[in-house]
Amino acid sequence: MLAIIGGGQLARMMEQAAVALAVPVRLLAEGPDVSAAQVARDPMVGDYRDLDTLRAVAKDCAVVTFDHEHVPPEHLRTLQSEGHACRPGPHALLYAQDKGEMRRRLAALSVPCPESALVSSAVEAEAFASTVGGFPIVLKAPRGGYDGKGVWLVGSRAQAAEALTAGGPLLAERRVDFVRELSALVARSPSGQVAVYPVAESRQVEGICTEVVVPAPQLAAQTHLAAQEIAMRVAAELDVVGILAVELFETADGTVLVNELAMRPHNTGHWSIDGAITSQFENHLRAVLDLPLGAPQARAPWTVMVNILGGEVGHLYDGYAHVFARDPGIKVHLYGKQARPGRKLGHVTAYGDDLADVLERARHAAGWFSGEIEDGEA
What we know:
The protein is α+β, with helices and mostly antiparallel strands. Helices cover 31% and strands 26% of the residues.
C-alpha cells in the first residue's frame, strides 16, 4: 500500500494513476471534501504536522509520498527510523522546503542560479542590491511561498523594509532579465534510473502559471539539453526520489538559471497526463515504488496545457457541452474545488501538429470554463 500525505489536486491525480496500476492508496487529507478525498476510498482526515497522525497513515504502507513539501522533516526522520520509506526523503525535501538552503546547496554544486543572500534588515537588503547593480531586487520568503505569494519585487530600501515587516530573514535575489520561464521535469527511482521529460515553456500572470507549451518553442537544442542535464544532476546530487521539477529562467543569450525546485508532481507537468507516453503522476508512483520508469516522450509534436482559473463568473461543469461539442479532441481535468478568483480549478490539454491551432483550442476551452469567453465569442 502507498501512503499519500496531502489532499490537493496533485494527490487526486496520483490516485488516478494508482488506480490504473492497481496500487492501493491510503490518503491523509486536510478535510473530508478536499480534492483528493473526493475520489479516495476511506480517506483519513488529519493534520500532517502531527506525528501520531502520520504514524497512523503510514502503518503497513510500503512507501510514504507527498503532494506538498510541508511535512515537518523531523517527523519524516522519525518515520524513517521506525522503518517507513519516505520518498522523497527529508534530506532531499529540505531543499524544496527552504529556498535559502536550496540556494546554498546549488551554489556548492556550481549549478547556475541568480546571485542571492539571506537578509534580515533593509540595510542588508540595500547592501546586497549594491553587489548586483542596485535596485530592483527580488525578496522571497524562504518557506511557504507559492503562486506569487511570499515574493516581493522591491525598488528601494523603503520597499525592502516594508517587505521585511512580514518577518525575516528573507532571501534576496538579483532580478533576472529573463526572456521566458522554462520547466525541466525528471523522474528518479531509488536505484538511480531517470526519465527526463521534454523541456516546457511556462507562462505566468502575476506569479500564477496560466499555460504550458511542450516542447518550449524555438528553444535551442543546446539550451534544451542544458536544462535537462541540470534537472538530472540536481536529482542525483540531492538524492531526489520521485518527480523533480526544476523551474528555470532563460536569458537572452540562452543561459538557464535555476529559479525554484519542487519535489512532487508539478503544474508544469500536467500536460503529460494526456500528452506523454507516461504521465508525471504514473512515473512518480513508479519511482517511489522503485519500479522501472515509463517513457516520458510526448505523443505529438505540440502539447499545450492551460489552467482553468476561478473568476467572478464561470461555466465549470455546465461548460462541458460547449467545450466537448466544439473540440472532441480536447482533454479536461477538473479538481472538484470551489471557485474563487485566481484559484486553479482544473486544466485543459490539447495536442497536435500545429502550435497555433493547439494554443487556440486549449485557450478557448479554458477561457470558456473560467468565464473569460462568453456566448457571443463561442
